[in-house]
Predict the structure.
Amino acid sequence: MREYSCFDILGPVMVGPSSSHTAGAVRLGRLARAIAGGVPKEAEIILHGSFSQTYRGHGTDLALIGGLLGFNTDDVRIRNSFAIANEKGLSFKFIPANLGEGFHPNTVRFFLISAEDEKLSITGASVGGGNVVITHINDNEIELKGDLPTLITTHHDIPGVISRVSGVLAEYKINIAFMRVFRKEKRKLAHMVVETDDKVNSAIINDILKLEPIVSVRSIEPV
Amino acid sequence: MHYYNVKDLVEEAEKRAVTIGRVVKEMEAENLEVPVEQVEERMLAQWLTMKESAEIGLSEPKKSMGGLIGGEGKKLNDYRLNNKTLAGQRMNKAVSRALAVAEVNASMGKIVAAPTAGSSGILPGVLLTVQEELNLDDRRIVDGLFTASGIGIIIAQKASISGAEGGCQAECGAAAAMAAAALVELAGGLPSQAGEACAIALKNVLGLICDPVAGLVEVPCAKRNALGASLALVSADMGLAGIKSVIPVDEVIVAMGEVGCSLPDSLRETAKGGLAATPTGRELAERFLGKF
């Protein structure tokens, strides 16, 4: 059974009206921003299921843009996030659509162009009470909840990669809380999602990048 | 928290001759492995945000995102300031603030989920009112918030605090039960009386469905916050008078959870039944969504 804290019951402090459709949407936006490495230049945002039906009344659209701008769930600027996005040079549009079966009713897909001109597709869902999960980055299935500092690697799927990455983390006394590996095809490119109890600094990331099978590493701060 | 029953919490508090709030506060500090002062500070911050949300809701009423509500809290407050009222000043003060916070929530203002965003008006509504009426400082109210959260944790464990799982009884009902217990302790009542007040409040909302028009946290949510605030005050008075719930509080909580599970899907936050499915509810949804 889940252990509750008093602050799970009296909290979070948030901008209304809905923990799943507003607070969760802010967190999805923040995660997408973190994956893109900062505020993107362009965002085309597909809204699926309940999100596509009621997004205006819950301010889901304002919340998603607020998240992309890096606002917290309790930031009252969320109400004005469209105007702030315009000032900051983030152009965006929303497209209600049906992504098909198998997607959570509160799913959003971001097509982003990052500040460094990287094209990204990020899909995630708001699963209740402000909790979220990123389910896809580009075409790769992953699982990222954003509660803990997280590393996402892209690496060649060969034996020993996992132990080498965890070895680097162990050297720096970073405790791994959760770890999952995803791949589409055997011996091609794969991804590791590593959630840690402690913050991972850039020196550690550089050491991981030096490992031969590693192609890239994204470091995601908790949201 | 290590307590699974309100009964155990009440017994522990009475054995030590302290409030439920104190027991819960110490338990929270122990679980988070921090000094008690630190959890008090954190709860004080929640309280200050609650207060602010009530003040903003009354002084700067806004239309909700869906446009269905806005300004009702101020309207009731103005009415009570200029009239004798039927239910009395205290009651109307609490209810107008509960409405005001619910409106702040619906217009994308800042609130504290208590226990949810949809039921966020009840605790600030009644607590701010007793703070003024009984001249209590913020520290005392913080203790009351620990009482409320202890009860809320037990409801979440034994039943639910989610409208999608348990209907509105799990959101506004839980908030009213939490608030009733806190009110009893803030008024100087015994922990056992707080438990009885909690049971009485929850009994009165068994079966209350979650039927938001157009799926928005507006209608009937804001006015159910009003109901929750008034119910909390009346239940607290019954507890303070020494009235007992024939069905023990922990059994009432379990019953609430079971009633929630047996509610059809259409009455649990899907906007497919109840008020959402009335001709006007459907028309509003259609106007808002363009389809339904």
User: Anything to note?
Assistant: The longest strand of chain A covers residues 119-128. The radius of gyration of chain A is 18 Å. Chain A touches chain B through 35 residues (CB under 8 Å).
